[in-house]
Structure formats: structure tokens, C-alpha cells
Design goal:
mainly alpha, 3 helices, 0% strand
Length: 147
């Protein structure tokens, strides 16, 4: 009879242990479901934020590229303008040099000579030295220079 009582006690003990095990499994399943839900919510949040940041980045990159293209166009325009102005300056300088050196009483010792005038200007040319000194200031005003 003791074996039956022992068997009964052992089965009761095993049953209790099994109930604890089943309760533990249910608890772990519930935790797993909760964690899965939290994980999917976090993934969705990250996905939304990444797509938002990607959109902002793409817009900023497009704006930067557009600005870079505009600056490149402006640079090309200004370089072309500078080139035209340099050409005009050279043409005006050549015309000025030709008209200046054609004046009677002036002699040029070398084309790059810093002193283009004699010590005393000829009659009627007293303003030529002043005009020559003012030449760099008037370089971009050809109407005033040719008067």
C-alpha cells in the first residue's frame, strides 16, 4: 500500500511540476507576443523615420545640385563677360595707344615704357599727361576716353 501512496504522491508532485511548466510556457508565449509586437512597432517607426530622413536628404541634395548648376552657369556667364571686357580693354588700349603715339612731338622709347611722354608736351596737348594718368580709372568708360 505504501507503494500506491508513494505513487500517488509522486504523480501529484509531477502534476504540480507539469502545471508550473505549462504556466511558465504560457507566460513565455505571452512575453514573446508582446516583444514581437514591440519589435514590429519599432521597425515600423524606424522605417518611417528613415524614409522621412531619406526624403529630406534627397530634397536637400537636389537643392544643392540645382544651386551648383546655377553657380556654374553664373560662373561661365561671368567668365565670358570678363573675357569680352578684357578683349574690349585690349582693343581700346590699342586704339588709345595708336592715337596717343600718333600725336606730333611724342616719342616712344619702348612699347612698355613707363614714361610715354616727353618732359614738355607740345602745344595744345597739355591735358594728355593727365589723360594718360587717368587711363586705368577710365578703362571701362570708353565714351569718356575717346572724347
Amino acid at each position: 500500500m505504501t507503494s500506491r501512496v508513494d505513487e500517488k504522491n509522486e504523480l501529484a508532485s509531477l502534476n504540480d511540476r507539469f502545471a508550473v511548466y505549462i504556466d511558465r510556457v504560457r507566460h513565455l508565449k505571452a512575453d514573446n507576443e508582446r516583444l514581437t509586437k514591440v519589435s514590429s512597432e519599432l521597425e515600423e517607426t524606424v522605417r518611417r523615420e528613415v524614409s522621412g530622413v531619406k526624403g529630406i536628404y534627397d530634397r536637400e541634395l537636389a537643392d544643392a545640385r540645382r544651386l551648383l548648376d546655377q553657380l556654374a552657369q553664373e560662373k561661365a556667364k561671368y567668365q565670358l563677360e570678363v573675357s569680352k571686357l578684357q578683349s574690349q580693354v585690349e582693343d581700346l588700349k590699342a586704339k588709345y595707344d595708336m592715337s596717343f603715339f600718333a600725336m606730333p612731338g611724342y616719342r616712344v622709347q619702348s612699347p612698355m615704357s613707363a614714361t610715354l611722354l616727353q618732359n614738355t608736351p607740345p602745344h595744345g596737348c597739355s591735358g594728355a599727361r593727365t589723360q594718360l594718368r587717368a587711363f586705368p580709372a577710365n578703362i571701362f568708360e570708353p565714351e569718356k576716353m575717346l572724347r
